[in-house]
Each structure stands twice: as structure tokens, then as C-alpha cells.
Amino acid sequence: MTAEKPAAKPTAKPAPKAAPRIEEQVEMAKTVGAANLDALAEASALAFDGAQACIAEMADYARSSVASGFDLVERLSEVKTPQEFVAIQIEAGKDSVNRAVAQTTKINRMVGDSVIKASAPLNARANETMEVLLKPYAA
């Protein structure tokens, strides 16, 4: 009984001319990848700055709202007639709604601006990366 050996699998070796091309592609991938990570870091920092600004703005609004609430309680404690009490409440309600709408609009603008700023480095890198990757195929 003779045991036959399985046929050896041919090893694929890149042709000598292909080796420099592969090295170029690896280097290009490293460069593009590093630049993409740098853009991601920049975008993250910009997004963090935007979030901090929004949080600071919301904290300021909360402080001013609490102060406004204390002022309202003080004003209501000094009223002499039910009509004056109702008038102060109506005025405070309108002011509260107007302040809330203005604050919401301000925060929405801040968030929108932050998203635009944070996405700019990523958009730029995506465009540059596509140009680099497609350049060899351009006619």
C-alpha cells in the first residue's frame, strides 16, 4: 500500500514588477488612514466644543429661569387684589413662553452650527480620500 502525497499547492508570489506597486498602495493606505483619523479627531474636538457651549447656555438659562421664578413669587406676595394677581400671572406666563421659544431657537442654532463645523473636516477628508483613491483610475 503506497500512500500518495497530496499535490503541493503552488505558492503565489507577486511578480517583481508588482511589488513596488503594492508597497505604494500600502503607503497610500497608511497616509490616507492617518489623515482620516486626524480629521476624526478634529471633528470630535469641534463637536465637544459645541456640546460644551450648548450645556453652558442651558445652564445660564436655568439659572435665569430660577431667578425669574423667585422674582415672580416675590411680586405675587405683594399683590393687593385678585385682578393684580391674575395680571401678574398672565404677564409671567407670556414672558415664560417667549423666553422658552427664544432659548429653544438659540440652542437649535447652536447645535446646527456645531454639526456643520464638526462635519467639515470629515467632509473634506472624504472628498480628498475619494480623489486619492480614484486618481489612478482617472483617464
Task: Please identify the structural class as seen in this structure.
Answer: mainly alpha
The topology string of helices and strands comes to: HH
- Helix proportion: over 70%
| Total helical segments | 2
- Biggest sheet statistics: none
Shape type: rod-shaped
User: How many domains in all?
Assistant: 1
Cα gyration radius (Å): 32 Å
Fraction in beta strands: under 5%
Total beta strand runs: 0
Q: Could you name the ranges where pLDDT drops below 50 across 5 or more consecutive residues?
A: none
First CA to last CA: what distance? 62 Å
Q: Can you give the mean pLDDT? A: 88
Structure write-up:
This protein is mainly α and 139 residues long. It has one domain. 81% of the residues lie in helices and 0% in strands. The chain contains 2 helices and no strands. It has helices at residues 18-77, 82-134. Helix 1 (18-77) packs antiparallel against helix 2 (82-134). The longest helix has 60 residues, at 18-77. The radius of gyration is 32 Å and the shape is rod-shaped.
Q: Which features would summarize this protein structure in a list?
A:
139 residues, mainly alpha, 2 helices, 81% helix, rod-shaped
In short:
The protein has 139 residues and is an all-alpha fold.
Layout of helices and strands:
Blueprint: H1 18-77, H2 82-134
Helix pairs in contact: 1-2
